Amino acid sequence: MEFTKLRLTGFKSFVDPTELNIARGLTGVVGPNGCGKSNLLEALRWVMGENRPTAMRGAGMEDVIFAGASSRPARNYAEVTLTIDNTERRAPAAFNTADQIEVIRRITRDAGSVFKTNGREARARDVQMLFADASTGSHSPALVRQGQISELINARPKARRRILEEAAGISGLYQRRHEAELKLSGTEQNLTRVADVLDQLD
Ligand code: ATP
Asked: Can you give the pTM of this predicted structure?
């Protein structure tokens, strides 16, 4: 799986539709202060399912929508599209039917955000799993933001372990285990209730 293109519309400072071709070998983005380098990286994390507004440097998720400038009114929605080359068929099974995968996330004021993969509506969880299984989730250490290197050096062992797990592509398994544990505990509670009801009937 290789990211080939990122398209932004109304996302933070990228009010007009903007396309970034992610050519092979691209390892960094440079530019003057405030030109939108961090916004690009955030768009990439966001389309992969990042759900913490703080990771987007905002108070709420709607803060990713272009908020207006002296010469332009605010936008009502933001959309980011990530195109992935899958000709080598490395995507997880559920997505592995196409040569190209297009993931779209769109947020509309007061209406929340929706995801689409290859034109079909998708759950946030499925999109997060697609990237987690491919060792490149929204928390991926492959995306290095400003200040992250010093954070890494000062990180506690547990936080460092999480980074290694993400790189090894097993963070999706942890998420699935967590969901299975929740289901199990729900079922155990139901069983206890059934036992109580049976006791009352006796
Ligand atoms: P630096 O090198 O200083 O860290 P940068 O190139 O990483 O800068 P960003 O932080 O990506 O720049 O972009 C900052 C710009 O994005 C600021 O001008 C800010 O006003 C603008 N911006 C952020 N959020 C929004 C928003 N919701 N609507 C409009 N503009 C926004």
From this structure: 0.78
